[in-house]
Amino acid sequence: MAELLVDFITSLDGYASAEGWPGWWGLEGPEYLAWLGESPEGDWPILMGATTYRLMSQFAAGGEEGADVLTDMPKVVFSSTLTEPLTWASTRLVDGDAVEAVRFMKTDDDLPGLRTIGSLTLCRTLLEAGLVDRFRVVMFPVITGRTGAERIYDGYPDVGLEMVDSRTFDGKIQLVEYVPTILTGPPGQ
């Protein structure tokens, strides 16, 4: 069964983006970009919603450093608002139920895994459905309290996280990976 990795890029205070700031808050470094291009999950299909698709395809079309890496990667977009043909290469549109589609995709023995990028609502829905195997957060060294947009964890259930990996890039960007467990109440009760 294919593994599903939820992959978030975040400010330290848990925002997915910030008004007026470039992608990666303009803080991406060469070590992080090299890892992104060589990531062992690089050949896994990327799952995303319409908002992330619009943003990331715009970054790629505009030549933003690092976003071009995603162009040739297989991508699946879950949306009822987008229509074919999609302009970003290697992208397939699914307009049906994302949970059922991902549940089916995970049974494909030819897929090494699936991963997300951004797509806060999609990720929350897949986590609540029990489909997420690993949760990776890359935190950039910035607090965007005044300009931050898209608080990542709003609306999430309580989730216990068992750390399975961590790494620092360029002396400033922190990656942490966890196995998630949805909690029915605070631990120890």
Automatic annotation (TrEMBL):
Domain (Bacterial bifunctional deaminase-reductase C-terminal): residue spans on this chain: 4-174
Lineage: superkingdom: Bacteria
UniProt cross-references to InterPro entries, sorted A to Z: DHFR-like_dom_sf (IPR024072), RibDG_C (IPR002734)
One Pfam match: RibD_C
Record's protein name: Dihydrofolate reductase
Native species: Cellulomonas humilata
